[in-house]
Design brief:
This protein has helices spanning about 1-10, 15-45, 55-80, 85-110. The protein is an all-alpha fold. About 85% of the residues lie in helices and about 0% in strands. It has one domain. The protein has four helices and no strands.
Length: about 110
C-alpha cells in the first residue's frame, strides 16, 4: 500500500496512477479481510478473541481506522473527478495512512 501510494506521487501518467489506485485499494481490502479473518478464526477455535491489552488495543484501533480511511480514499480516487492538487493530497494521505498502519501493526505485534 505504501509503495503504490508513494510511487503514484511521482508518476504523471493518469492510467498508471489509476492502476495503482486499484492496487492500493486491493491492499487495504486484503489488510482488513485478513485482520477480520484472524479474529474470526481465533474466536472460532478458542471461543474468545486474542488477548490484548493497553497499547496493543490502541494500535489495533489505529490500524482499523487507517484501513477504513485508506479504503475510502482509494475508492474516492477511483470514482470521483478530482483536481490534480486534490489527487496529490489523496496520494500523500494514502502514503501516510499506510506508514501509520505499518507502524501500528509493529506495535500490535510487539505488545500482543
Amino acid at each position: 500500500m505504501v509503495g503504490g501510494a508513494v510511487y503514484a506521487l511521482f508518476w504523471r501518467d493518469a492510467e498508471i496512477r489509476r492502476r495503482l489506485a486499484w492496487l492500493v485499494l486491493a491492499g487495504w481490502l486484503v489488510q482488513a479481510v485478513s485482520g477480520a479473518a484472524f479474529g474470526a478464526i481465533s474466536f472460532y477455535y478458542y471461543a474468545s478473541f486474542p488477548d490484548i491489552h493497553g497499547i496493543a488495543v490502541v494500535a489495533l484501533i489505529v490500524k482499523v481506522i487507517c484501513a477504513a480511511l485508506g479504503f475510502i480514499l482509494a475508492v474516492w480516487l477511483l470514482i470521483a473527478r478530482l483536481s490534480e492538487s486534490t489527487r496529490r493530497y489523496c496520494w500523500f494521505s494514502l502514503s501516510g495512512l499506510g506508514v501509520l498502519a505499518l507502524c501500528s501493526a509493529a506495535v500490535l505485534r510487539w505488545f500482543s
